[in-house]
Specification:
The protein has 14 helices and 19 strands. It has 420 residues and is of the alpha/beta class. The strands form six sheets. Strands 6-12-11-10-9-7-8 form a seven-stranded mixed beta sheet, sandwiched between helices.
Length: 420
């Protein structure tokens, strides 16, 4: 799967997936950049928004804007209904048991920090162990480093091989009776590696550990079923799922969330406050202090509606075919080295060019109207593992095309001509 073999250029209408029709739903894709058609290949950083999401946000601010849960007037009641409707959509989208297991946060980063500080800080002590991986985004590294400093817990890492895959034999060797938390990304943002979550979760549970999944890169590209995975916590961000920025979701098993103290204090997370003490609200509101990003939550609901209507399975298959094509074309460019060649991966093409810094690649491609990401991608341990300072990263979504891949390859060759 996704090997850089030579393959034919796929049609823009493949696997019953009409990419031309899909592209028409995204206004930002209809523009030119520096006099050339925009080729947006930075989807792992943030995805573009369909017209339906943009319209939903505009409609909320034009016609509904009001605070939620505490108002008795009509606008507040309408806003509350739309907000809680979005929670129900999220529950169904990831197949959680209850809306009580769905906590709205600012993004995957805040979700992971919430788990680290509310669950981890109250349960871990000196000598306990946390296992993460060399593949992680900084948002799934730094919170655990902070927690280990606070509690005296020991932080361990699952190493990766030259293809960018986790070495599961090493993971088995790290697990023991002191393992309390295993935190792992579903899909690597730097390499596109899809991790074998079910195997990891089952092995962690066998020693009594709880498992936290960073799903920020996964929800736009694969169907997530938290009950089938049997993970304890799952975090993702709305803006990578074609929704607004500043909104995200923490899923947690209800029994765990009920036992955890609040992460923040303020309005709406309480039932009663006196000068002596406070009685906290029920789930999930115990973790949603203050006025939330109401429009963001409603916009996330609209994004889920869009993805459900589109059909995530067909979109994911199209993305695999597109990445196969990109791998095949890139493998024919002399001096280009692919970084991250896992057998099971999706959506991301990370690469280096001989004697050309990734930042220079990104700058030249921008001049061609092509938006990629260049740098360490908030995954410095990955770069250290491959002994490189950075990569150039093209990351795909279901609205990208083979013609855009061709434009990318042509621009890469232009980089080589300029520097050589």
């Amino acid at each position: 799967m996704n090997k850089p073999d030579t393959i034919n250029k796929i049609s823009n209408n493949t696997s019953n997936f009409d990419v031309d029709k899909v592209r028409a739903d995204f206004p930002v894709l209809q523009q030119q950049l520096r006099g050339k058609p925009l080729v947006y290949l930075d989807n792992a950083a943030t995805a573009q928004k369909p017209e339906s999401v943009i319209d939903t946000l505009a409609t909320y601010y034009r016609k509904t804007n009001a605070n939620i849960h505490r108002g008795v007037h009509s606008l507040s009641e309408k806003a509350t209904a739309e907000y809680e409707s979005a929670r129900t959509k999220v529950q169904a989208f990831i197949n959680a048991d209850s809306t009580q297991e769905i906590v709205f946060v600012r993004g995957a980063t805040e979700a992971i920090n919430l788990v680290a500080q509310s669950f981890g800080r109250t349960t871990l002590t000196t000598g306990d162990e946390i296992i993460i991986t060399e593949l992680e985004h900084h948002s799934n590294i730094v919170p655990w480093q902070i927690l280990s400093e606070q509690t005296g817990a020991i932080l361990k890492y699952i190493p990766i091989n030259d293809a960018g895959e986790l070495i599961l034999e090493k993971f088995a060797g790290l697990l023991n009776e002191n393992t309390r938390i295993v935190a792992v990304g579903h899909i690597s943002n730097a390499l596109g590696t899809i991790n074998p979550l079910k195997t990891i979760i089952d092995k962690a549970h066998a020693v009594g550990a709880k498992v936290v999944i960073d799903g920020a890169q996964a929800v736009p590209h694969t169907k997530v079923d938290v009950k089938a995975l049997n993970c304890d916590f799952y975090a993702f961000s709305g803006h990578k799922l074609f929704g607004p920025t500043g909104i995200g979701v923490l899923y947690g098993k209800q029994a765990l969330l009920e036992a955890m103290p609040p992460y923040q204090g303020g309005g709406d997370m309480i039932q009663r406050v006196t000068m002596a003490n406070s009685i906290y609200n029920d789930l999930p509101y115990k973790f949603e202090a203050g006025t939330p990003h109401i429009a963001g939550v409603i916009g996330l609901g609209a994004a889920i509606d869009y993805v459900n209507h589109l059909g995530l399975v067909a979109a994911a298959q199209y993305e695999i075919e597109l990445l196969n094509y990109a791998n095949a074309q890139a493998s024919q460019v002399p001096g280009l080295t692919l970084v991250g060649t896992a057998k099971n991966k999706t959506s991301i093409l990370s690469f280096t060019l001989d004697k050309i810094h990734p930042h220079d690649i990104g700058t030249i491609l921008d001049g061609e109207g092509i938006a990629i990401r260049a740098g360490h991608h908030c995954a410095m341990p990955v770069m250290e593992r491959f002994n490189i300072p950075a990569t150039a990263r093209a990351s795909f979504a279901f609205y990208n095309t083979c013609d855009e891949v061709d434009a990318l390859i042509a621009a890469i060759k232009k980089c080589q001509r300029i520097f050589n």
